[in-house]
Design goal:
- The structure is a single chain.
- With 142 residues, this protein is of the alpha+beta class.
- Helices cover 31% and strands 25% of the residues.
- The protein contains 5 helices and 6 strands, in the order αβαββββααβα.
- The strands form 2 sheets. Strands 1-6-2-3 form a 4-stranded antiparallel beta sheet. A two-stranded antiparallel sheet has the order 4-5.
- The longest helix has 16 residues.
- The chain starts with a helix and ends in a 10-residue tail after the last helix.
Amino acid sequence: MEKELNKYKSTNSFLFTTDLNLEEVCNAPDGASGVFLVYNVSDAAKQLIMVGSTGTVQNDGTLKVKSGGLYDKIVNGHQFAKTGRKYSWPAQMKKEEIETLEVVWYETFTDKVKGIPTFVEATVLQSYLAENGTLPKWNVAF
C-alpha cells in the first residue's frame, strides 16, 4: 500500500481517542480531495481498519470538491449510523474497545499530481484485499 501513496506529498495524520473532539483534532484540509486511512493503534500493533475518499473528477479533467473536502468527509461523513463520524466513531470505538485511531490523509488531486480519489482508494483496498483476503473491517463494501 505504501507505494501507491508515496507520490502524494500533501499528507498528514492525527490521533483520535474517545475523549477528544474529532472536529478539533482533524487536521485534514477543507477544500481538498483525496483519501484517508484509519488505523486502530494499540501497544501490540497498528491495523488498517478503513479506507475512504472524497472528490470527483469531471469529464473535462477538473476536480469537483465535495463541500468541506477531506475535513468534512472525515468529521461529518456517515458511518455505522445515519450520523457523522464525530458521533459514530467514539461509539464504535467503545463497542470494539479501541483506544486510539490514527487517521492518515493524502491529498491526491493537486496542480502537480492528478490521482482520482476513488481510484486511489480502490488501489489501496485492492492491495489490502490481495494481502489479507478481506477488506478492512470498517469498509462494509466497495
